[in-house]
Amino acid sequence: MAKKLVIKVTAGTDAPERCSQAFTVAAVAAASGVEVSLWLTGESAWFALPDRAADFELPHSAPLPDLLDSILAGGRVTLCTQCAARRDITEKDVLEGVRIAGAQVFVQEAMADGAQALVY
User: Fold this and answer.
1) Which InterPro entries is this protein grouped with (predicted)?
2) Residue 56: which domain range?
3) Distance CA 7, CA 76 (A)
4) Which of 30, 58, 70, 118 has the highest CB neighbour count under 10 A?
């Protein structure tokens, strides 16, 4: 089993099933004791902001705020630097526990010994 799971989610409300799948996999992995790093990129960047996950709806899926809370409690959530800049999101805007970092950090995490990376 991978020691670390790095998940990059590029979808938000524009592709709700793909978005929900990424958050669900991350939350289940974190609950299972896997070290999880969830990267918010593209349209999922908005979920780094308070209350944005509450606006997300997808029938027959777990509520996004609950998934995000469990990921933050048991893993790490990172907002892409460029994605944040394009949306005028700064460190002071994001949820507590969300960091902003760039591609170099993503590559380091994804290439770490024992890491597995997924992109949604």
Assistant:
1) DsrEFH-like, Sulphur_relay_DsrE/F-like
2) 4-119
3) 10
4) 30
